[in-house]
Amino acid sequence: MNILELSEQEIGRRQSLQALRDMGINPYPADEFPVNAWSDDIKAKFNEDEKREVVVAGRLMGKRIMGKASFAELQDSKGRIQLYISRDDLCPGEDKDLYNKVFKKLLDIGDIVGVKGYVFRTQMGEISVHVEDIKLLSKSLKPLPIVKYKDGVAYDKFDDPEQRARQRYVDLIVNDGVKDTFLKRAVVLRTMRKFFDDRGYTEVETPILQNIPGGASAKPFITHFNALNIDMYMRIATELYLKRLIVGGFEGVYEIGKNFRNEGMDRFHNPEFTCLELYVSYKDYNWMMTFTEQLLETICTAVNGKPEVEYPDGKVISFKAPFRRLPILDAIKEKTGFDLDGKSEDEIRDIAVNKLKMEGIDETFGKGKLIDEIFGEFCEGTFIQPTFITDYPVEMSPLTKMHRSKPGLTERFELMVNGKELANAYSELNDPIDQEQRFVDQMKLADKGDDEAMIIDHDFLRALQYGMPPTSGIGIGIDRLVMLMTAKENIQEIMLFPQLKPEVKIPQSSIKEWAAIGVPENWAYVLRKAGFNLVADIRDQKAQGLQQKIGEINKKYKLGYDKPSLDEIDSWIKASAATVE
């Protein structure tokens, strides 16, 4: 990287880096630094009558230089602690460079340091560490966006949602509460695993690369397996492999892992997402509803200390069991006034298009997808408190057992919370002949143009023919669950590294393109620093003015380049103009 591609602060930090090395200080030492205390621990265990020696490490987040004594703020993994640094205590001998040069001039905000000292309370009453030794552990070469306040206005806030998601490492450093969200996510997963493990269910891992993308209605990502010279799919669900394990004799299995669906992105969807799927033999969907109530109440209490989540706008969502249970056709009738029970595909399409005035409905939509679209538009967003939507039509549920008492319906539920689906569960279909026919029906939908219809998985059908016990299964979107438990409204806030559009970069002519109009490489970087990113940008410049601009940069950064003549610069300008004629 050419130095002129850096900001002034970055250049200054690299100069400090070199100055440290010139002093014999390694800015990236390899040896262990024996930390024995953390910021929250120091404050919680402070004792006025005890001179406690501590060794702490973290990131410098502030410095207040006050002559022979200074204050600094250190941020570690647990929080922040104030440091008090006296020149003569830090440097008891004649050599004061550690304080006068290193601490005051060469250490920057963002540097990671280790300090040794003792805990005391300042005259202002703040528990602090009186530093007796300080060591640079890692030099920061980029400045942090530290918020500054003037006249009640905040400056340099790092609050752009896209930048926060793109540079999560900065977001975690400078924004309070961000790390807490991801610690709560860890609590969700840890509590869920313990809940399953305590009941004797086994955590397993199944393939992410699959020959057939089964277990859900979704558009897959396609990749190529070079060794076998075949196309494969990133899994859209773990369902069919987990059911194979139930066939094989596991009583209960679960997997928490990544799924991939080649679909849109918005504040509720990310194409790469985490999902929990659980399958338990000899159970049905009624048992699973009760089990799910217990699971979510336990998780919410573990995360929030109570079975409720409070949102910033005052909304409260309660996960206290039991939850409401409502058949899907009743929900549609309740919200739209139309009873779809017993209606044909054409009748439902007529209601959707002509009565409900829905857009985007076409002939590729089968009965199940039509019902799903109607529910999604008119019903889903209205269920704020946890509600089990039950008894879906068979056309919507190709992997679900037929309802034992309601012809045409299946034993399936989806859990709606805060206007979105959180979980999907079935009394699992274990009749291999019925399952094969359901797959055939799905392929007919694919032939009509439905790119989310399921593909027949012949190996799964073969497994079912060996006999699968009555089983209930559930899938829970972990990302949405974490959104609910942390009262977040955007999926990017609870994913450490969500998918994003490619970063927009300022267009720049290459060094080769500058050379083509006669500009040497070193002066190409100077021209960029002067704000001329494209060769065409200099076409309207005057040779004398351009010479002055680049000469100032040459002088400011002490580059020592030989100044190009006016004739040379004029030739650049003319060649630049020729490129756009």
UniProtKB/TrEMBL annotation:
<dbReference type="GO" id="GO:0006430">
    <property type="term" value="P:lysyl-tRNA aminoacylation"/>
</dbReference>
<feature type="binding site">
    <location>
        <position position="421"/>
    </location>
    <ligand>
        <name>Mg(2+) 2</name>
    </ligand>
</feature>
<dbReference type="InterPro" id="IPR012340">
    <property type="entry name" value="NA-bd_OB-fold"/>
</dbReference>
<keyword id="KW-0030">Aminoacyl-tRNA synthetase</keyword>
<keyword id="KW-0547">Nucleotide-binding</keyword>
<keyword id="KW-0648">Protein biosynthesis</keyword>
<dbReference type="Pfam" id="PF00152">
    <property type="entry name" value="tRNA-synt_2"/>
</dbReference>
<keyword id="KW-0436">Ligase</keyword>
<dbReference type="InterPro" id="IPR018149">
    <property type="entry name" value="Lys-tRNA-synth_II_C"/>
</dbReference>
<dbReference type="GO" id="GO:0004824">
    <property type="term" value="F:lysine-tRNA ligase activity"/>
</dbReference>
<feature type="binding site">
    <location>
        <position position="414"/>
    </location>
    <ligand>
        <name>Mg(2+) 1</name>
    </ligand>
</feature>
<keyword id="KW-0963">Cytoplasm</keyword>
<keyword id="KW-0067">ATP-binding</keyword>
<feature type="binding site">
    <location>
        <position position="421"/>
    </location>
    <ligand>
        <name>Mg(2+) 1</name>
    </ligand>
</feature>
<dbReference type="GO" id="GO:0005829">
    <property type="term" value="C:cytosol"/>
</dbReference>
<dbReference type="GO" id="GO:0000287">
    <property type="term" value="F:magnesium ion binding"/>
</dbReference>
<dbReference type="InterPro" id="IPR006195">
    <property type="entry name" value="aa-tRNA-synth_II"/>
</dbReference>
<dbReference type="InterPro" id="IPR045864">
    <property type="entry name" value="aa-tRNA-synth_II/BPL/LPL"/>
</dbReference>
<keyword id="KW-0479">Metal-binding</keyword>
<dbReference type="InterPro" id="IPR002313">
    <property type="entry name" value="Lys-tRNA-ligase_II"/>
</dbReference>
<dbReference type="InterPro" id="IPR025567">
    <property type="entry name" value="DUF4332"/>
</dbReference>
<comment type="subunit">
    <text>Homodimer.</text>
</comment>
<dbReference type="Pfam" id="PF14229">
    <property type="entry name" value="DUF4332"/>
</dbReference>
<comment type="similarity">
    <text>Belongs to the class-II aminoacyl-tRNA synthetase family.</text>
</comment>
<dbReference type="GO" id="GO:0005524">
    <property type="term" value="F:ATP binding"/>
</dbReference>
<dbReference type="InterPro" id="IPR004364">
    <property type="entry name" value="Aa-tRNA-synt_II"/>
</dbReference>
<feature type="domain" description="Aminoacyl-transfer RNA synthetases class-II family profile">
    <location>
        <begin position="188"/>
        <end position="502"/>
    </location>
</feature>
<protein>
    <recommendedName>
        <fullName>Lysine--tRNA ligase</fullName>
        <ecNumber>6.1.1.6</ecNumber>
    </recommendedName>
</protein>
<dbReference type="GO" id="GO:0000049">
    <property type="term" value="F:tRNA binding"/>
</dbReference>
<keyword id="KW-0460">Magnesium</keyword>
<dbReference type="Pfam" id="PF01336">
    <property type="entry name" value="tRNA_anti-codon"/>
</dbReference>
<dbReference type="InterPro" id="IPR044136">
    <property type="entry name" value="Lys-tRNA-ligase_II_N"/>
</dbReference>
<dbReference type="InterPro" id="IPR004365">
    <property type="entry name" value="NA-bd_OB_tRNA"/>
</dbReference>
